[in-house]
Amino acid sequence: DYRFSGKSPLLPLQNYGDLEPWKMEKNAVQILEMIELPRKYCRFYFMTLRGCERAKCWFWHVPEQGDEKICMAILRTYISIKESGLLKRAVQIFVKYYKEVTPGVDFASQVLNDLLISLLKNCLLREVFQILNVTVRINTLPAVDVLLKVFEHVASLNIRDAVPTLISTFCKLIDAGMFLEFEHFDYIIKVLHQLQVSSQEINTVLNIKSRFQERHFEKNWLFDFNLAVAEIQHCKEKSDWTKLGALYVNARTGCEHFDDLQKLSLCIAEILTRDSETDRPGVPFCDFADAVIKNSQHNEADRIYIGRIGISVMCSYHKVLQWIKGRKVLDKLHELQIHFTVLKGLIGAERLASRCQIVNKAAEIFLKTGSLDGATWVLRESEWTTNAPLWPCDKVDILSRHNLLRTLVHKYLRKSLYRQAFEVLQNLPGFQNHSDILDVSQYSCLFNKLINACFESKNLGVSSSAVDFMLSKNIAIDFFLLRRLITALGRSSLWSKARTYYKSALSLGCYPPLQGNLYHKLLTIPSYLSEVEMLLAIEIFLVSNASDIQSPMAASQTLQIILKRCEDQTVQNNSDYQAAVERLILAARVSDPKLFLKHMTMNVNMEEVYSLELTSALKWLQENMKWAGKVWLFQ
Question: Considering the domain boundaries, does residue 231 fall inside one?
């Protein structure tokens, strides 16, 4: 039983410096085997030096949301072993886990700092930058000493190519709230001079230092929490949302205690969310967001904060059916290029809501305000995700997505936007994720409706793509529509596609099974077929009898074709049957090269019997057998 017990997974560490390589590996394996994992996690990936080598692994390679304690334990273990491959794997785990999750109570800053130091010792600089970029996004920064060691490492190895990335990452960390003393700036500038970097890069650091000096002298870094709360309430009473945004930015830059900033942030979020309980015009969130962005100097942490508040505000409007206000929130997030589909709400139920649920609500708001493109855009942005290990959702969310996408499809069909309708159909629950618990066979009616609408508009491209998709997913196709497609493709001279679908139609039972006489120079063609279908049946007939037709004894043989009557085609009502005769003659004419039919007789069932002229059949085979053999010899 590999369930996590809460015990420390680490043994007392040995000093590996004096060990031979094979002993180091043995000790590393012993330590890895002490990691206790839930059964759903891949033991090869997490507990071996080599890792998982399966092309497709059914077990998880990323800890589940809520398993932060396990994530930290794994990282500690990898750091303690100090093996380069495991450190790279630690980076992969950290990046993928915190791509979808914000740090919780089990997050250990020391693990973050130790990981960065270990990466530097192993000269894994690219991985260091990967981790630092993630820390900016999740607003959980490393120690200043670690940043200084990164500069020191780049300088000691004289890696000048890394300087642009180093400066860019440094700026991001400062924008995210990292506080440096003036001596830190002086040390960084000294290191940059040692690297002989450009004056422009030196000036970047000097400008940031200047900014810090201004704040130091103007504000003296004093922050009065009680005064800030009073000002927030004043902004609320006066509906001064722009000032509230500026107040938040000032609080973030001046507040030295994270808990105080967290309280203020939640307080502001609560005020903006409760606007849904009022009838006042306008949307306070939009003015607030504009003010924050204007004053934050491209701070990534502020953008994430706005995104998370925006989700909570949007959901609060959705709950009370204030579609227009909800749409304004979404438009503002889009305008500010904040990718909210990868975030969670800040307060209320949205803090625990699944990604599927948040996207469903956003898409529904777009639909309710008449924007099909907006609804599809937000679904695309979320990569049509429903259920995923890091974003679990329940049956209600999946059913909501199912109903939402069906509505989208019907609206696109009414507007004759077939390609967009097809895109939505391909992303119905059950296609992308097999854990979505919905049977995809139920979508047959929707796909057939799309194909029928495409025929009405002569859109063969989308109808062909839809049929391809249905065949690949084993979704039942309306045989009448499939036959129409085959005929339309043939009449448009798209014979390769027509043959492909005819072959599929035969295997699906769309046509009567090929008679046993097929190889005995007798072909029965149902009279209800189109001239295209008749020609394709004749092609199979020719290829099946190719050896006999091409033999020296062929002159004494007869290839017969019987045009079989349908049950409702009585001798008295002969017009439909006569039309079928004309289609058969047309089928022979459109063949390349042409085939020639000779009327022989009428059998006892009053059905026309023809012979296929051997000379024309032989010529057809000589010109076409090379490709026809590959296409039709499939039995």
Answer: no
Measured distance CA(345)–CA(295) in Å, rounded: 23
- Are 450 and 467 in a shared domain? yes
> Angle CA(508)–CA(510)–CA(511) in degrees, nearest 5?
120
Which pLDDT score, from 0 to 100, does residue 519 have?
58
Query: pLDDT averaged over consecutive 10-residue blocks of the chain (635 residues)?
Result: 31 39 55 76 86 87 86 89 90 89 82 93 93 88 90 91 91 83 86 87 86 56 68 86 89 74 86 86 92 81 90 93 95 92 81 88 96 94 82 86 95 95 93 69 93 92 95 94 95 94 93 66 91 95 88 77 79 78 95 94 91 93 93 72
| Cβ neighbourhood burial of 167 (10 Å; 0-12, 13-18, 19+) | buried
- In terms of domains, do 408 and 469 share one? no
Check whether residue 47 and residue 85 sit in a common domain: yes
CA 189-137-258 angle, 5° bins: 85
SS3 letters for 387-447? CECCECCCHHHHHHHHHHHHHHHHHHHHCCCHHHHHHHHHCCCCCCCHHHCCCHHHHHHHH
**Among 541, 425, 518, CA closest to 473:** 425
C-alpha span between 137 and 266 (Å, rounded): 19
Is residue 597 in some structural domain? yes
Classify residue 387: in a domain, yes or no.
Answer: yes
Give the residue numbers spanning the domain of 443: 439-511
Query: Of 373, 401, 436, which closes a domain?
Result: 436
3-state secondary structure at position 181? coil
Shared domain check, 120 and 103: yes
Q: b or e along 321-358 (b: 16 or more beta carbons within 10 Å of the residue's beta carbon)?
A: ebbebbbbbbbbbeebebebbbbbbbbbebeebbbbbb
Task: Supply the pLDDT for residue 5.
Answer: 32
Q: Are residues 127 and 67 in the same domain?
A: yes
**What whole-number distance in Å separates Cα of residue 221 and Cα of residue 62?**
41
